[in-house]
Structures are given as C-alpha cells and as structure tokens.
Fold this protein.
Amino acid sequence: MTSPAPALRRPDGAAVRILVVDDEQMLTDLLSMALRMEGWDVRTAASGFEALQAVRDFEPDAMVLDIMMPDLDGMAVLHRLRQSGNDVPVLFLTAKDAVADRVAGLTAGGDDYVAKPFSLEEVVARLRGLMRRAGTATQSEEEPILRVGDLSLNEDSHEVERGGDEIELTATEFELLRYLMRNQRRVVSKAQILDRVWNYDFGGRSSVVELYISYLRKKIDQGKEPLIHTVRGVGYMIKAPTQ
C-alpha cells in the first residue's frame, strides 16, 4: 500500500474542479463518486459538445476525456480547446490500448492517457500529477489526522489510537479503516470498498471485505461501544456513538 497523498486545493483554497466526459453513464457515475471522495468538485458531460460548454461554464482544473464519443470525439474536443487557448490538463480515457492511439492523444495536446479497464486509484493519482505539474492545484497543509469519536488515524505516520490506546493494524486493515473514516456517516458498499482498497473491479470477491471488517471490529470495537456498523443489504458505515 502506498502512503496517503495530501489533499489538493486550488491556489485560492477552493476545491479543485474536475470535468469528466464520457458517454457511459455508469462510468461517469463511478468516476464522479471516486473524485468527490477526494473532496473535489466534479461535473460530468456525456458528449463532446456538452464538454465544450461545460469547460466554458465550469472552468475545470483538469479533465477526464473519453476519446470515443458519438458526436464530437475526444481528439476533436481537445483540438478546439487548444485552438481557443485553453490549456486545461487532459487525461484521455479510452478502450483503445494501442501505442498509436496513445501517441496520437499525447501529440494532439493531451497530458496523459489511461486505458480501460482501469483502477479508480490510478485515475485519481494521474489527475493529481497533472494538476501539480500544471500548477492548477497545490497540496494543503491540513493536519493529516482523521477522527471518529475517540478513534484517531494519522495518515502520515500510520498511527491509530482509540481512547489513547495504540492499535496495531496491517497495511490492508489500515487502508480499509482510512477509507471508512474518510467517509464517516456514509454507507459504502462492498463493491466500493473492493475497488478503493483492493483495486478490484466489481467482479472481486466480496467475502474478503467481510473478513477484514471482522478483523477491524476485533481491534477497534471489541470491549467498547461500536463505531463500525453494518447496514444490511447495503454496506458498512463508521460513526461516533453520539452521532
């Protein structure tokens, strides 16, 4: 597991803006969910012409742009943006994995390229890199500590404590707990957990989530008021006892 990345903000302190352009609704919904979990402001477009209008209205800090679209493809969208003087960083997203397609996208003025199927974590990491290099976003200096009730998790040192008592977690347990704490009071499904913690697609084994939730409960909740809750048929949520 990699170390957590610091939050990114616009130079004025506002949330970074990401425009996701793809004609597959399920994919845009999935990407939007993942990017919003980073604290980013996300808007979507389902066609090339919608994307051009959204760029004018939304002024994004970066774009995730599908190449294959029914009206105006990603290459044409990018060409129009660059012709108008707009240099927003662009991460191309496409089912094509041929070297020629990758070269064509980058030659046209794209900044990076991800081929489907992909990991949501990879898309987030590449967008971070694009925005840092372009200077459109900077790392925040906020304290890297997540808190839920008397439970604290330090994202830099990987130290976890509850009620002042240190808790030893494996790398995977830490990533699972961090994901839950980043989304406290929000129910997350097994599929979401698999993708964010294990980078599996929705065909991953949900039983591994149940197993690691049980490990966490033994270390976090045993003998104390429970913080980790099961929402039957939906997923899991972490919240403070008084919330």
